[in-house]
Predict the structure of TetR/AcrR family transcriptional regulator.
Amino acid sequence: MTKKAERTTAYIIETVAPIFNRHGYIGTSMSDLTEATGLTKGAIYGNFENKEALALSAFEHNRNLLLQAIDNKLDMEIEALDKLFSLLSFYKQYDVFTLPLGGCPLLNVGVDAQSNNKLLAAAVKETIKEIEGKIALILENGAKQNEIKLPVPPLQFAKQLFTMIQGAVAMSTMTQDRKYLVNTVTYLEYLVKQELKK
């Protein structure tokens, strides 16, 4: 692929990612994509096999931005508890972070793709497992290094924590009230301290 073709492909993905995320796979029309990119249908499909391939690339783009932000919070050279607080602090501002993405890619694409796109639904499920795994690893390492006490297995705690975070994201999104997010994450900070602090 030439440099120009690579730039065009990247431009298309970055431009259409928030549109797919906001309107969903079915809800996004070809005219939405041509209007946003300023490219013809032929130019877009010259870079992607079909709409599904483009939607998947768009989700992967948003997913990678999310995973990179999470990694930035979890990869710091600090103790496990502080890493969790850093992650929770990120989620307190999650609605602001996801604004340019067209909302939470896991919530939007996950719900939208359940009935109409198996590939997208599987990609979301895989991303959720990956994030839970990252949190579980922090917990496991923290317990091994005697930084935290774990009341349940690391993955179980990680799944519960992430479920509560995503539930708050969903409520905040549906009600357009960020207090659901902020209050839940504030409660989670208290819970993490109570459950894990030695």
